[in-house]
Fold these 3 entries.
Entry 1:
Amino acid sequence: MKGQRTERLVRIASRFMLGPSRHLSLTDLAQDFEVSKTVISDDMEIIDKAFSDEMLGGIEVDRGRSGGAYFVPRVGEELRRRWLEQIAQVLSSPERSLPGGFVYYTDLIFDPRVASMLGLIMASRFSSLRPDTIMTSEVKGIPIAMFAAHALGVPLSICRFRNRPSDGPAVAVHFPTGAGDVRTMYMGTRQMGSSKRVLVVDDFMRGGSTVSGMLQMAKEFGSQVVGVGIFIAAQDPPRKSIPEYNALLTISGIGDSLKIRVND
């Protein structure tokens, strides 16, 4: 597979982008491209600088026995804010305001271009916590969570509000809603093992009851929640049912007074 260096750089970079957070052996790369490991190490520095200049992340190299490298998503602050301000501007249209203080965003998060961008931002924010799995709830939390899981190189576990025979045996938890009702959430026992480091990702949060249910689910599996990432959080009520979370956007007001703020 030996060829020009430019071609080799492009092909190696494409492997990192197609498998973010996935370990690539420097020895295997050297064999694939018929060059020395020293040459591959030099290539890593060039690719790392290119990714950093694009504010997408960087390449981390393990100099130990494994001798591998992987792409770590780290969206730069300037790029993150630019992307989110574009989304906030779209969502701020009065036509997107829905009864009850909601905003219509389904078309955005089910657009792979937008969902992948949001997933990369979410992964960048929590990559240092080294989660083993991403947990979300059906249905609208899935696109962002899936792309975040892809960027972090971990599996996705989905909490459902109705048990499906195709999921096999399931764990059920009950949690109160803001309206005073009690809902039930299910997760198949084969989806997530015990003693995992869990990152919870969801699309929208008002009072935090759904996220609270997912925290209970993680506890039932004997896993540790290392972070909670939300696409949009409502400003009201100010006091949520979960102690800590990280929201990309905050919504306040309704109709003509609707406001979407990008969070730091």
Note: Residues 37-53 form the longest helix (17 residues).
Entry 2:
Amino acid sequence: MQTIETGKTATLKVEREVPFGYFLTNEEQDVLLHESEITEPIEIGQEIDVFIYVDKQDRLTASMKIPQVQIDQYDWASVVEVRRGLGVFVDIGINKDILVSERDLPELKHLWPQEGDQLYICLRSNQEGRLSGRLATETIIQELASRAPESLMNKQIKGRTYRVLRVGSFVFTEIGFRCFIHHSEQLKEPRLGQMIEGRVIDVKEDGSLNVSLIPRSHEKMDKDSETILRYLHSKNGSMPFSDKSDPIDIKEQFQMSKGSFKRALGKLMKEGIIYQEQGWTHKKEND
């Protein structure tokens, strides 16, 4: 006899039809298969594979939509709602969103995932059979991770954060590489579940990667130049800042050091985009 457990797949027989769906059975216990959970035609007496969960009315329910996320089975799940004081809800592919409790989320609320972020989770079930999401632990990630090749050195790589700590952020890529970003290698701490792209700065002996989110100097200068140009556009092409401006004023307005500001100005002047005059910086009209 097939055991019926929430959060897992079961093979059950179609017992009888009702106005709102079918009842399935393992010859000892009946489970509702609502019409909204049917993905293809079925017949009385047929055995079908279904996913078991407790619905919003606390009824034991079956779904022919088989999610990749199950008890002890990990996959990515998209965040569909953030609810302060409770946690975040994720979509695993059935007609009920699953809660990841705030107890499992970072203490700092600005590091909570946002809608559209994805969490690497499995399911857990309480005594009443209600399901919740469980974040993958470091041990689980290590077991699932693939060894990264040395050829990835200095290459760009994408992944999602699965753990955020003061020392840095931990990332799992979609192709299964485990990465670490030290806090000194990130300009801004990424959220849990956020997709990030960084540069591989070390391939470790265990096959994991160290990644930096800080652009190379020329890439950073390009971004700084873009910041200055956007500001100039907003001020009709002139601003009361130059390479002689106070470092504090520059930091407050542009969020960059005076050295970075001067390098970016120098690049724009060399390219003939701007010029300086009497402590002001102006965009050239032909730009």
Note: The chain has a mean pLDDT of 91.
Entry 3:
Amino acid sequence: MSAPGVQPRAGDQPDARVDAAFAAQPRERFLPESVRGQAALDQPLPIGFAQTNSQPTTVRDMLVLLDVHRGMKVLEVGAGTGWVLAMLAELVGVDGTAIGTERIHRLVEAGNANLVAADVPWARLVEADEHALGAPEEAPFDRILVSAMAGRMPRTLVAQLAPGGVMVAPVRMRMMRVVRGLPPHDDPDDAVVTEHGGYRFVPLIEP
């Protein structure tokens, strides 16, 4: 695990790192051809199956809150066609790991093809387990990003964080940042939760 040991370099700001990830992985590459021409619009775009590719400013806000560093192991829940997952891969770099889960098989297929084209082989998208939220068999994670709206705090995902890890998730229209404590105060129920504004997403389907 790398969370406690990964330290930002002087001048290494989350905004700059996120902007670099956006530049490296243009949104249009991950959109269906029918909406690719709308990639520059700051709004959600349909990717099929009642799912959307999220609004770029919303994605940027979430990635800045997540504060991902090189070498980390990260999870995205609800990865769609892989755009945000590819940017997470850029943020963790070749020494890190980026895993995404997606419940719709055809989006998993499309997303993995997109990741191959994006040249980030340390990222992978897997079909979500219908009986488990997240990827408990792959835990713990330094960072978890939830790209769908939860009806309640997903505590099973908090438990998949490493001590000191961070989760960003929209819950009941509010963006939540969850920080799990360090030992001996790393009980998931004692995680520190802060709110960061109102947002809208497609709903998170929980097992």
Note: The two ends are 27 Å apart (CA to CA).
